[in-house]
Amino acid sequence: MSRVLIIGAGGVGAVVAHKCAQAPDVFSEILLASRTLSRCEKIRDDVRELQGRTIGVAQVDADNVDETVALIQSFKPDLLLNVALPYQDLPLMDACLAAGVDYLDTANYEPIDEAKFEYKWQWAYRERYEKAGIMALMGSGFDPGVTNVFCAYAQKRLFDEIHTVDIIDCNAGSHGKAFATNFNPEINIREITQNGRYWENGEWVETKPMQYSQTFDFPEVGERKAYLLYHEELESLVLHLKGLKRIRFWMTFGEEYLTHLRVLQNVGMTRIDPVEFQGQPIVPIQFLKALLPDPASLAEGYTGKTSIGCLIEGVKEGQPRKVLIYNVCDHAECHREVRAQAVSYTTGVPAMVGAKMMLTGQWKRAGVWHMEQFDPEPFLEELGQRGLPWHVKELEPSR
Ligand code: NDP
Description:
Helices cover 36% and strands 28% of the residues. The strands form 3 sheets. Strands 7, 8, 9, 10, 11, 12, 15, 16 and 18 form a 9-stranded mixed β-sheet that branches. A 7-stranded parallel β-sheet has the order 3-2-1-4-5-6-17, with helices on both faces. The chain has a two-stranded antiparallel sheet with strand order 13-14.
């Protein structure tokens, strides 16, 4: 029995609220707080209707540490689950430190004025979290999150040595809009338009945005072209996978999406620096976010599936081995269950499962930790039961 404080009432926050509500034995009290109270209230009403439970709601500016500390002191949660934006990671980690509460997020910190995501800012909290006897779990979404756990499982059960990992992420869904992003537009576009990067033989190799593409055969979807991007789980996985020689991240994009993005970039709409407009400074990408569909609003009528996994090669008992560990998730089924689309769902479910691991003491250690540093098996068992079944497919090893 424990109390959880969820911060952020977007597409992912809604899924987390529903999934926590489905597990009253673990999450006996739930408070959802965000910048806009009306969004929390809408989720509260949906949770009451679909799950038959009442959750609390509150307004909070998560950039303001004192405000969050006051909220924590009044609600007294056992865990703060951050599904606001990456900009809020550090103020929320500060608030947890001040109030002595465990912390979990799904995306690493990014400074608002620089499209650069790195763990160094959050790793800097390690000693203070250890001293305070509290825990922070980094990146408990799908990627990062489940992908890290798939790698940990491969290392524990499937391989003696892992040589290469390709994380492959495909959303083969259709939302019927000319251009929309499946999670926060600002964060999504910043991620895609920056340089790519992968790790090989101990070194990071930088690429131009979308410089490399490759076709992969995605389970239940088929062959799709995916582009090499930098993704944050690479940074911790290179530290924790033994014998690793190369790790890369690939994501699929439709032609329509790429064309829109190219035009928006060419006209300056994806800029993150302020420009003067009628005597006011505005940040073009923030203005663009205001025009684009809210990711949560895409859920109704969304068809198709996401297919995300880790393609891993290495050696087991002296023999070469290649496997794909993956999950396939159907947009329409997610909508039926919690009124969400699959990208929010595949992020929100692992956030809830990570929270359960912490609250039940199955994953519990003071300090700042990554998903692959814990036993993958209890997490994966729970993940399958909570709506994201996963599979291991044996493949012919490369020569
Ligand atoms: P949304 O934009 O839909 O939701 C973000 C929510 O955070 C909004 O409700 C917003 O409030 C709230 N928020 C923003 N700033 C503040 C603040 N200062 N104080 C309080 N609340 C605030 O994003 P998503 O739900 O799509 O994504 C949520 C997080 O999940 C992001 O960090 C994203 O990067 C991460 N993510 C991780 C994935 C993974 O696999 N690991 C995949 C997809 C997303 P308001 O309603 O007022 O705007």
